Amino acid sequence: MVWAEFILWCLEVLRFIRRGKAMTIRYFLDTEFIESGSTIELISIGIVSSDLREYYAINWECDLSKANDWVKENVLTHLPEKPEATDEEWKTERAIAKDIICFVKQPFFKNDLRKLDYQTLKQIEPEQGIDIEFWTYYGSYDWVVLCWLFGAMIDLPKGFPMYTNDIKQWCNQLGNPRLPEQGLGVHNALADAIWNKRAWEFLRIFEEDCVVERG
Description:
Blueprint: H1 2-19, E1 23-35, E2 40-49, E3 54-59, H2 69-74, E4 90-91, H3 93-105, H4 118-123, E5 130-136, H5 140-148, E6 165-166, H6 167-173, H7 189-214
Parallel strand pairs: 1-5, 3-4, 5-6
Antiparallel strand pairs: 1-2, 2-3
């Protein structure tokens, strides 16, 4: 399956090059969070890219004691034990923000972006002809949580779109076909992000089949 996805990605790149159109890298995003009605606090975040990279981090600064019973039962049970200090998985919000900028922008640059400071990372942007898309599932809160890592909306890193595409909305527009079952890993941010990518791929094929049938 991984090789098949990689081949599809290569074909997509070649198609855009031949047509002279922008190349798009899609980022499938999911978060787990604590909401109070007045604010949303990030617990964890998972991102999968259309070129088969993955990112996952847990917010070390999140006060998990504020979680309601549902979050404790369905989300916190998926988390490893919180360490006394940050590590490779449990990170500060600033560290997660920097990681995400590097993860999203790195394919467009030859140099290792991790060596740059945070403000420089935010300002550099991909050259023209390259598009970045974010995709979420019921993603309103996911998008707000992501944006708040960087500050206000105007503080989003250059090159980032100011909106997310919603898989559920696209699904409804196509007549609400039944999406693939996720199975294990529900409410784990990375597992959910992986499923988001599967759902997007399913809808892309479904839409193409609908076009062929109408034709």
